[in-house]
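Re-running the complex after MR caught last week's input typo. The corrected sequence lines follow. Everything else is unchanged.
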Amino acid sequence: MKTLKKLSWKNILIILVGLFVLIYPLVGANSYIKHLFILFFIWSVVAASGNLLNGYAGINSLGNIGFMAIGGYVSGILAKSLGISPWISIIIGGIVTCILVTIFLGLPALRLSGIYIALLTLIFADTLPSILTLTREITGGAMGLHEIPGFLPNMEKIHAYYICFVFFLIAMLIIYRTIHSRTGLAFMALRDSENFATTLGVNRFNERLKVFAISYFLTGLAGGFYVHSLGDISPSTLGIEPFLLGIAMIELGGIGTFAGPILGAAVIVFGGEFLRLAGTLRLSLLGLLICVIILFFPGGIMQLLSQSESFIRKQIKKRKPVEKVQPT
Amino acid sequence: MNSFLNAIISGLISGSLYAATALGLTIIYGVSRVFNFAHGIVAVMGAYLAWTLLSSGGQLNLLLGIVVSLGVMYIFGTLVYRFTINPLMKKPGWDISTVLFLLGGGILLENVLLQIYGPRIKSIPVLVDGSIKFGPIVIQWNDLLLIVIAVFGIVVLNMFFKHTRMGQAMRSTAQSMPGAKVVGIDIEKIFGLTFGLAFAVTGFSGVLLSTKYFLNPHIGWEWMVKGFVIVSFGGLGSTNGAIFPGLILGIVEALVTLYLGAMWVWPIWFAIFLIVLLIRPQGILGGRV
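Corrected-run output:
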């Protein structure tokens, strides 16, 4: 009964926030706020699919931003140079990302353990800017791609807003279903105890390949939605700052929780605008934020929430108030 | 032909420096299984420290500057271990949290250095002037000295690991942590010393690299990634394994730059890395500290 009550409270809150997000642009969000929301939708998909790998499957992948850029570039080039409809090119972009990653990274990386995957993905993301410059005629080199067609002719911000919102919902549904499916259980078991899981008949290679494919397909799609909503992409999209932001979102929200990356993305995207005030100190602050969270709040916002919830619960039940509140 | 020979020579020089860079990585990973993702910035820090000492107190000579920067880096390494890595390693999921922590910390340090020193390129003066000529090939004395120092450093480190009590304790920790505990080795102390040693070695390699190339706060990432490739080529956790991959990759890099252009360097490094991992993930010369 108690858990039911708790769940319903949370559900009500989620529904309220969802409704707010749904109606807000109609009742008067300005263009800037819409822009931020679009960024939030896309970033939270990137963060959540990164979390699927890092948090749930225990695969230290650091190349998410690079793969997002691949999806974006493929979709952008197809739509701009070949005139393919964005709806199709986004999906092609996602599939291409997925296949590229699986061939170039997945197959070698899945035979390896822990740290090698982190190295491989990081070096891969590091190599991308050179490759972009080498393929200047197609990708635009350091200048990037501009004036990429939107989803609809004469698209306005509000259309992009709703399209990205729907994408966000669908992606979250896919991630949620994945986590709670057989595959999800399998790769969580692999994360927790690899030997035990393989003994029980979990196929390490297949399950990891699946989670790689799902995660990077969504990341590639997010890249496609990014370019078609915002209209341009350049190698600076793969720079060190987006890379850090991606990590900070997962860590801040709470690694290995479903809602964590979404909350983290919300805080970073909306709060990140204040970081602009810090000017050149911005990156230092981000680095510091990541360090402090990992050292002192390893569970991120989700941990704080659940701790404060149990604290309040105890207060309500009038037990000894400050007995078992864990210091963080 | 001349340019080919010169490319080989310069490849050997940069290769030995890359090997020196990779040492710090491989020491830490070999002993403690923590992969230092702040490696590049540690090298850059060492180099900046030496540069500061050189440029501020004009009477301080280069050797003294290097010694002081080594000492400072040693202390910094033990402090980093004591106050951050040690608590992190006691929690579950430490492998991923240390990676992310060191990445974040590296970026923090990089930007702090950027605030202090600015983005302008600095360079450490060469150790010795002059050059030597073998027919068409010209070698700077300084480069020769760098190779000698790098190789000598690797040999000394190996002696340290083989023949001193501390080095043996580090090796036994690397081979088996529970085993080392059983015979009474204080693991945490060994880890602290390892971090200090590795940071000092890394800082020193940074000084060497910046006498040959240049120094700015961002260059560390490049050094670090090259160190990664060399380390995985030679086998993670192997000090000897760093030498030959370093030299090979240095030569490959020089030839690629000569015949294909500098833009191809990164894709080629990545391709080599991928091939190595596909053929022999434990490294071509797989071995341990």
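None of the earlier attempt is carried over here. The radius of gyration of chain A is 21 Å. The mean pLDDT of chain A is 81.
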